[in-house]
Amino acid sequence: MANFWQMSRGELYYSLSHMHKLLYILCLALVASLSGAGFAAAEDSNAPLLQIYRSSAAADKRYPEVARAVALLPERVTTTLRSAGVKILIVPSLLEYDSSLGQKGAPRGWESGSSFENVGGLYHVKTNAVLVAERAVPLHGGGAAQPTEHRFRTVLHETGHAFDSCLGHISRAADFRAAYTLDVDNLTSNQRQKLRYFLQSGNAGPAETFATVFANAVCQSGNTPLVRPDLAEAFPRASEQVMKLIR
After folding, report:
1. Are both 210 and 142 inside the same structural domain?
2. Can you state the angle between helices 151-166 and 204-221, rounded to 10 degrees?
């Protein structure tokens, strides 16, 4: 490029004019980018938390029960879920939503021979969605898929897993683990047998306990009967930890 001070008036005018055009184009691109991002964020924030994955008569029939559970979620919970982009989806079945689940074998804590076609709900980490299935294959009985039961409980339990994830897996944090461990130490042999699903090794036991005491806490805050009163009795310290998080 020629020296700025040696440019003719025409050359200088052309150079400055060209620079102005470039700056103008860059500004337009920046504004468009920011506007697009803002629009997407607003669109996401306005999207309903509960959605139907595939419209059908079966989905419409199950919607009220699922919506009743979602309506109980405290504002702190719904705000956290929305901020993290979590969706609650009514799906035909888990495998119709994600066929790869059929290759995963028995779900965590389930008996040998079971599979995700037997499961009525799941927090799907890959798509950040709480899935509530319209139907599932009965674990004992086989045959064709049947309408799922306990959808109210399933919504709250799986949302508990989502909430746990949104908080950076609080079920693995020191305070919750300490409360969980003290509760476990005080279980009777009968409780240990009955609640063995919540005593799985590693992160599984605390995570499943968190999800269900979360469901209980949501019901308690909404003056609704607890989904698992026996768990509230067995895990009072863990329950109190979760209650503090949702108030």
Report:
1. no
2. 110
